[in-house]
Structures are given as C-alpha cells and as structure tokens.
Amino acid sequence: MNRRLFRNGVVALVAALAMVPAVAVADSGPYRHPGRYAHAVHHGGGVPVVAGRHVRHARGEAVTPPRVPLNVRSGPGVTYRVIDQLGSGSVHGLRCTTTGSRVHGNPHWYRLAHRPGYVSAHYVHAFRTVPWC
C-alpha cells in the first residue's frame, strides 16, 4: 500500500514538473536573445526602465575554472585593457548587456553595476535576464 502511494506521488510530481515551461529555465544561461530587451531605456539617473517600471540590477556568477580570475575590461572586447579581476564563483551586479568581440563564439558582454568595466558573458552565469544597454 505504501509503495503504491509513494509511486503515485512520484508520478504526480513528474507530471507537475512537465507542465513548467522550458522558457522559464532557458533564460538562465549566459547567451542572451538578440533584441529581446531592445525596448529597455535609461533615464537621467542611469537606472534601467522597462515598460514604465524600474528594474533592479541582475546578478551573475563568474564561472571560470577554480582559482582562475575573470578579467574585467575597460570596454566590451578583448582588445580593451584589463582594469580588474573577479574571482571564480564570485557574484556581482550586472547593469546591462552589449555586444563586442566574440569570446568562444559569444559576442555578448555584461557591464558591471557597482564598479567600472565589462566582463564576457561566456564566463558569467546570469541569474535572470539582463537588459540591453
């Protein structure tokens, strides 16, 4: 009897999880969809506004190999000079997404929210969608 209840519960859980749209987890990767947040604008305070409401800065985790720092550059590309480094696994605020030179095929770069500089989206896992600059 208990096995049947347990099996039925597991089947119900799997069925419920199957109903969660794949889009909900698709935005968690570092690759952004081009033009998805093209309607995002900035007003005088530098705070992004989407559809008339303020958007808090997204956060992202540096996903470089262990003990390998992530370079923070002065612009969105590998030709810009390195101005700082972030530790692997560290979490930082992301202000916006822009395009620049490709890193392993990914042309997207994140502008950091609370310090100057840009990091390649290839090495950052964004916890939610980051608006375009």
Class computed from helices, strands and strand pairing: alpha+beta
Note the overall shape.
elongated
Q: What is the gyration radius calculated from CA atoms?
A: 19 Å
- Give a quick account of the main beta sheet: strands, pairing sense, barrel closure: 5 strands, antiparallel
Compute the number of strand runs.
Answer: 10
What percentage of residues falls in helices of 4 or more residues? Answer: 10-25%
Percentage of residues in strands: 35-45%
If you average the pLDDT, what whole number results? Answer: 74
How many separate helices?
2
- The side-by-side strand order for the widest beta sheet comes to 9-8-7-4-10
Helix and strand run: HHEEEEEEEEEE
Unreliably modeled segments: 22-53
Ends apart, CA distance between termini = 58 Å
Organism: Streptomyces bugieae
Protein name: SH3 domain-containing protein
Keywords: Signal
Signal peptide: 1-26
Describe this structure in words.
This protein is α+β, with helices and mostly antiparallel strands and 133 residues long. The chain is built from two helices and ten strands. The strands form three sheets. A five-stranded antiparallel beta sheet has the order 9-8-7-4-10, with no helix packed on it. Strand 8 (106-112) and strand 9 form a beta hairpin.
How would you summarize what this structure contains?
This protein is of the alpha+beta class and 133 residues long. The chain is built from two helices and ten strands. It starts with a helix and ends in a 7-residue tail after the last strand.
